[in-house]
Amino acid sequence: MTSEFRVERVTSAAPELIYSILAEAAAWKEWAPLVSYSELVRQGTPDPLGAGAVRRIGGLGFLRVDEEILESRPPHYHRYTAVRGIPVSNYLGEVHLDPAEGGTRLVWTGSFEPRVPGSGRLLATSLGLVIGAIANRAIALAERDASTR
């Protein structure tokens, strides 16, 4: 059975700025909560950060997740899958950055099939909280960067 989470935020920052922060996987360790390790393992083609790219994100001393970018349409859309590192199958994440009055509406969704029966709700809640914290920090960074320009 498929489980899902959804995170929505509105910010005064432009989609281009938020997209660039989220796309630069190697920098996540500098700003994202719970992330102590991040790198670009494989570049995409033709965009190094686009489709085909694989980013590795680690944290909490034991967690290491590899995510492959499936599609990117800067600065408005980003789709990826987790290829290893979390206890789910068929994970699909999408980030939509749409213009909103005075800024951007961010909608970050994820769907997956839990490997352990009955764990879907707990995993969806946990992933939603982590992704929500990452979205909050990315937005704060984007708003700070926008105010110093």
TrEMBL record:
Cite the InterPro entries for this sequence: Polyketide_cyclase/dehydratase, START-like_dom_sf
Which Pfam families does its entry note?
A: Polyketide_cyc2 (PF10604)
Q: Which Gene3D superfamilies match?
A: 3.30.530.20
* Protein name (record): Polyketide cyclase
Organism encoding this protein: Mycobacterium shigaense
Organism phylogeny: Bacteria, Bacillati, Actinomycetota, Actinomycetes, Mycobacteriales
